[in-house]
Amino acid sequence: MTTVSTADELRLYAGLLWNNAFGPKYDLHKIPGPPGYWLWGHMPHLMRPDYHVQALEWADKYGPVTRFSLGGQHIVLVSDPRLAATVLGRGAGALPRKSIGYSFFDLATNHLGLRSFFTTTDEDHWALIRKGTAAARYFVVALKHAQELAGQVRLAAAAAHRGRGVEMQEQVEMMLLDVFLEGLFEMDLRRINSEEVGHAMNLVLEEANERIKNPFRKFVNPLLRPGWTRSVSRAQRLLGSLYGRIFDTTRARGVPPEDETLLWACLARIKDPKTGTPLTREQLLPEIGAFILAGFDTSSHTIAWCLFNVAAHPDVQARIKAELAAAGLLHAGQPNCVTPRRGGGRGGGALQLTYEDLPRLHYLNAVVDETMRQGFCTMYPVAATGSVRETTAPTRVGPYTLPPGVVVWPMIYALHNAAHNWERPGEFLPERWLDGRDTAYASARDAEVPAASASAPSAAASDQDGSEAAGGGGGGGAGRGPRRFMPFSEGLKGCMGQALGLMEVRTVLVSLLSRFWFDLAPAMGRAESVRRNQQIALTLKIKGGLQLLCTPHSGAGRGKGGGSAASAAAGAGAAGAAGAGAGPRRGAAGAPAGAAAGGLN
Ligand code: HEM
């Protein structure tokens, strides 16, 4: 079990400063980049809360490979799809994770300085956990919770004062936390205060994020802000006790049967290669925390940003409703949120959503992809800003040879938004995804990525095979250029929960959008200012929350043009949108093992 002491970290920073001043530079100085300060480098530039936007500005200004530094650390920012795929992929040119770039994550997974498989430098340990959990069946309790959430939204919307909205970001966060605790670990939610846990996570992640920009904060904060430091420690202990409770509960279940493939059972079966015995409490705690964190924050903020985009673009919302209506999934005029069993449908109430419906809702999925492209919801720094890799020997990255110890940052936000990769990158255009899966790839003329590092794009990948496998490696398939869309990263260390995450996002969106019309509450101000008001936690979230006016479709429902949501949908070109998205309805038969029996909604 790897731990990192304060002395280790101080030694590391001293080494970096030394290296910056006196170490070999190879081609570093040839890489274009913004001017910085000698000692601090570009730290002052990155102190702004939306520093991912600053990095994108550099990518746009200085090109697909640009350079800056944070204190003593040289950082090479890559927004060229081909190079990013190579660096993250499995073939020659692939680089290991930069461990310190992830160490902030440990703050939220444990308070003992223990590393999880996500943050360790020990590749054997990473492989042990990754392989041990690869078969995990991410059981879909998302549906149950999504439906409950719709009920809660209805109650909150009814209770809200006129013109005041319902705070959706936090509601979705809590819901996703429940999904994780119940679905992956089979915990009894009545015994867990999700709200308290959610707040503790947010607090710890806020601190973790600040430490990425300013690693010295760890040392000065206890002196300058002792109250805050105590709150962070309290939150860490609270999370630690939750992970401990999960360990105790699942261990008390004894040896899981071989055919049990929920996450807790997979973790329980992993044996320490040295002792041959199941992993100890100390070994498993950070892993439990890593899974919860990796999955809950990313998925919940994806949902929140999708809802924001939908509320900010009534035409987009109406088109989604049209698609849902054509699929028989719109709950127009229903008095409550109880979904009828099969047998409802176009003549009566809405049909029950099945797993098979999800990939067929093309327009909804385009909205999700476009939201993820904009980068609001990918993991940080693991992705809002990218997966962080490191050179361990002199390494060629594109035309440049880099010395060891340089951070290579295939920054997903820049890849997804740089002017050299996309047309009209700043615009929210779900339509760009309707042309087909090739949207995820750069043009074929750039296709020099080794085939060995290829993997499919996010949504398209899981639609295709329904698998819950992690993202694969690098570039495009036959005839395609390299991927320029990789919200789940790439390669061996790409996201393990891609299919689960997408399923949760889509399911919750269908569940809510089939029942409510959403508008931004007046308190949110203009959409543009909300977009500028991002706050980075583990992922980008909406600072101050997402206040939405939620109008149920029943009777009082309204949409574009002032009619009911259903009629708004129809008026928004139902035939085109829905025709592309939803084919004739089928029964639940054939739903993959991950899907709840009988339907998803
Ligand atoms: C929309 C939702 C999600 C997004 C955008 C997302 C994004 C990512 C990204 C970009 C990485 C790569 C980190 C890197 O390159 O260093 C990653 C890793 C990971 N994700 Fe996700 N993720 C999502 C949902 C989930 C869910 C639901 C789970 C639940 C199990 C999960 C579990 C993980 C794990 C365990 C890793 C680390 C894999 C490893 O180190 O081998 N993620 N995720």
TrEMBL record:
<dbReference type="Pfam" id="PF00067">
    <property type="entry name" value="p450"/>
</dbReference>
<keyword id="KW-0408">Iron</keyword>
<dbReference type="InterPro" id="IPR002401">
    <property type="entry name" value="Cyt_P450_E_grp-I"/>
</dbReference>
<dbReference type="GO" id="GO:0020037">
    <property type="term" value="F:heme binding"/>
</dbReference>
<dbReference type="InterPro" id="IPR050121">
    <property type="entry name" value="Cytochrome_P450_monoxygenase"/>
</dbReference>
<dbReference type="InterPro" id="IPR017972">
    <property type="entry name" value="Cyt_P450_CS"/>
</dbReference>
<keyword id="KW-0560">Oxidoreductase</keyword>
<keyword id="KW-0479">Metal-binding</keyword>
<feature type="compositionally biased region" description="Gly residues">
    <location>
        <begin position="575"/>
        <end position="584"/>
    </location>
</feature>
<comment type="similarity">
    <text>Belongs to the cytochrome P450 family.</text>
</comment>
<dbReference type="InterPro" id="IPR001128">
    <property type="entry name" value="Cyt_P450"/>
</dbReference>
<feature type="compositionally biased region" description="Gly residues">
    <location>
        <begin position="469"/>
        <end position="480"/>
    </location>
</feature>
<protein>
    <submittedName>
        <fullName>Cytochrome P450</fullName>
    </submittedName>
</protein>
<feature type="compositionally biased region" description="Low complexity">
    <location>
        <begin position="452"/>
        <end position="468"/>
    </location>
</feature>
<feature type="region of interest" description="Disordered">
    <location>
        <begin position="575"/>
        <end position="601"/>
    </location>
</feature>
<keyword id="KW-0503">Monooxygenase</keyword>
<dbReference type="GO" id="GO:0005506">
    <property type="term" value="F:iron ion binding"/>
</dbReference>
<feature type="compositionally biased region" description="Low complexity">
    <location>
        <begin position="585"/>
        <end position="595"/>
    </location>
</feature>
<dbReference type="GO" id="GO:0004497">
    <property type="term" value="F:monooxygenase activity"/>
</dbReference>
<dbReference type="GO" id="GO:0016705">
    <property type="term" value="F:oxidoreductase activity, acting on paired donors, with incorporation or reduction of molecular oxygen"/>
</dbReference>
<keyword id="KW-0349">Heme</keyword>
<feature type="binding site" description="axial binding residue">
    <location>
        <position position="495"/>
    </location>
    <ligand>
        <name>heme</name>
    </ligand>
</feature>
<feature type="region of interest" description="Disordered">
    <location>
        <begin position="452"/>
        <end position="483"/>
    </location>
</feature>
<dbReference type="InterPro" id="IPR036396">
    <property type="entry name" value="Cyt_P450_sf"/>
</dbReference>
